[in-house]
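User: I'm curious whether this sequence folds into something compact or stays loose and floppy. Could you predict its structure so I can see for myself?
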Amino acid sequence: MKTKRILAACAGILLLLQFFPIDKDSPVAASSLGLEALYNPPEQVMKLLRNACYDCHSNDTDYPWYARIQPVGWWIQDHVEEGRERFNFSTFATFSDEDRAEVLKYCGKAILNDRMPLKSYQWGHPEARLGDHEKELLVDWLKRASIGSTAQRFVAHPEPDPCGESDEDPDCCFAGMPDSVGSDMYIASKDEPGDRLRINGRVFKADGKTPYPGVLIYAYHTDAAGIYPKKGNETGIRKWHGYLHGWCRTDADG
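Assistant: Here's the prediction. I'll summarize afterward.
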């Protein structure tokens, strides 16, 4: 008899909870602020992002049917709000270049290490279960997009002036730098694999003649796609193939 009363009380409480549904209305943001408008990813990549990430990290949340059942709905809503607070792809354009790069890099690593999407999310969303090919496709795009968030390619002058052979203190002249370098332009992440070198030399404005004052350049060896491979002992600038990606700091006038 006592057990029946306890069960009846629990059923009554659960029934009462159903009178307090969650608010499924999502915040509204201009489409121009979203990741899709900002990066224009390939259709397949965008589909994977929506299936694996958007329910918790955008304003385009598609609540499952069981979100109508409380307290399950409350738990889901809390999880969605926490995800949006961490980063929201619907308002991605409002992030700084550096923050966008960090988010994209984090997503790539989390997917690669099977930390995302969450196993609990995959249980109710089979479309979020990424196969090896899908995972590779998505991680590769995220990596490239994270580089593109901050990168402007440094193009070496056809006739460097001069390029030293020393790995310790290379000396090169670069032309064609963007005119709006700013006082702190970040290009490549400091933790990228590969050899990072400080280049002592001059950096010129777009006219190729006027030098920027007080510039320090740190560069990474990359291939044409912007990937940072380390190939054997290729450390000298003359031995590099592909592009130089890096970051530089200038004084206030730069």
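Summary: The chain has two domains: 15-150, 152-254. Residues 79 and 250 are 42 Å apart (CA to CA).
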